[in-house]
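Ticket #495: bound-state structure for adenosine-5'-diphosphate.
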Amino acid sequence: MAKPLSILFVSSEVVPFAKTGGLADVSAALPQVVREAGHDIRIMMPKFAAVSDRKFKIHDIKRLTDMPIQLGEKTMLGSVKSSFLTNIKTKVQVYFLSNDDLYCRPDLYVDPKTKESWPDNDDRFIFFCRGVLRTMLLLGWKPDIIHLNDWQTGLIAALLKTEYANEPLFKNTKVVFTVHNAAYQGIFPKSSFEKTGLPDKTFKEQGLEFHGKMNLLKAGLMYADHITTVSPTYAKEIRSSKEYGFGLEGVFKRKARKTSGILNGMDTAVWDPSSDKMIAKTYTKDSLEKKLENKKALCEQFKLPFDPEIPVIGIVSRLADQKGFDLIEEKLADIMKLDLQIVVLGSGEKKYEDLFKKGAKKYKKKMGAHIGFDEELAHLIEAGSDMFLMPSKYEPCGLNQMYSLRYGTLPIVRATGGLADSVDDLDEKPKSGTGFVFKDYKAKQMLDAIKRALKAFDDRKVWEAAMVRAMKKDNSWDVSAKKYIELYKKLLKKK
Ligand code: ADP
Ligand code: GLC
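RESOLUTION: The complex was predicted; output attached.
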């Protein structure tokens, strides 16, 4: 084998330590597959309150205790702790940057009381980014690649290409910046820029500036050696219009030649209906009848009457505008007239929490809602539902539709981003279809797709054939991780 690469993977959330969405799943699964391929990949994230020392056997790194880190005029102390991600085959080292004042809070990004971002998120992530580079220097570990993810890490790219431009340790280091969601940009007032320690010209001339403010996603885009997004369709969408690029579409367009769309994979060890310990009964494509036991358990959990003939539609999601719940709101009464049941697990914006809570009250026998975050219930919903609904306005990749496919739960999705890249419409492609896809962001089209799904469900033979096809689809990380490794190697060859 050629020389193994050393890669630092930086992300603000990683399963099982801290998670708000798919970024955490990706940040655990991809590094493990890259490690299995023989490379030295290590992860770094903030030590949030959820990262319990005891639960995760976290230990201190003595020489990285109380490191002074500059935050504008202030010097603050950060300590690095460490643990491992372990699965059967590999062990990946994880570094945590700890500062209790900044990170030890009941939620990662948002104050649960106000549902607003923490007012000092600029400090929290400037400190994190400076702390990551400080850690590398003190460790004397030379990464060939620093792989950054989303706005929380964007400043690292800018620091490397300015303040650290002549630092021997990073002389040959290349930076990959992955955009998981262009809607979250880390925008702060210009006064926050002073705290980054970056030279003045990086604001205006080369571009952290965004309508007079500082934009940390843009920092990543402007200074990375290569940009990736999490699906090929999303890579095109973000440069196509404001709806997808959220004001950065021009930058995405200019960077098109440096950008690639690599579809996420899924963790097939965690999401496997044949061995899942969180579901009522394990099953495979050859024992589909056992899936019904999960449907029964699911109905019980949501206090819905169980009827094998009535399809259950599952939803597991952050309740955010991105996910298309206003379409459901618009057509809820019509949906509830159909012969189906819906179970929802999610938390987020109050208007959507209320929508589903009220819906469950009003349509007692047809709708169940659980507001909160519940890993175990998410697995049971995947296993017990017949269909899975994701009517997203935009979806950079989406993981739940992949989990659904693997559990034989046919997805009903809008053709956007990773949903378009991973689900084929059964009516359009009767021999290879794995779900139901609607094109425009219109409530009527979503309702029609649901109706088409119900119709197909009535034909057991057609339905089971589609289930088997869906379950056979390979959405593992193997293919996509290879693409990342190829990209890393290609970048290192460039001068
Ligand atoms: P996003 O990252 O935009 O939220 P993804 O589909 O990529 O969307 O990933 C969502 C991940 O978060 C999935 O693993 C899903 O199961 C999980 N998830 C979302 N909401 C909840 C919830 N309320 N309870 C448990 N898991 C959830
Ligand atoms: C983001 C996107 C989601 C994607 C996930 C992981 O949170 O909203 O579509 O699957 O990141 O890349």
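RESOLUTION NOTES: The domain at 288-474 is CATH 3.40.50.2000 (Rossmann fold).
TICKET STATUS: resolved
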